[in-house]
Amino acid sequence: MQHPVCRFPRNARRRKVVPRFAKCHYSGIMRFKWVVVAVIAVALIMAFLWLVPELQVRSFPEYDDLEAKDVLAQTNEYRRTWAQIIAGFVVLLGLYFT
Question: CA geometry: angle at 50 spanning 47 and 54, to 5°?
């Protein structure tokens, strides 16, 4: 983790303390840490919603006998279910932190 770059008043340098009114900012990637985390989380959720329902439908014993429209309908139902589970978790997480 990078340390913040602070601009201190002259007397604070002698006392080696960070006063409350010092202007500090983070440099580099630390400034955008939460943006990077959010983008990665959204990408992982999208990949999950794309791949897992297809794997679930392919695991049916009668997968080879199903028509294409039935496979697509079942995949869509699985995606809808997983999206509702993830959205419910996000809502609960948001309620916890507010």
Answer: 135
Mean pLDDT, each 10-residue run in order, the chain (98 residues): 54 54 58 85 95 93 91 95 96 94
Domain boundaries, the chain: 5-97
Structure tokens belonging to residue 51: 């791949």
**What are 43's two structure tokens?**
């990408």
- Going through 1-98 in order, the beta strands assigned E by DSSP cover 5-7, 23-25
| pTM metric for this prediction | 0.65
d(CA 57, CA 79): 11
CA distances 75 to 27, 54, 56, 83, Å, are 45, 6, 8, 12
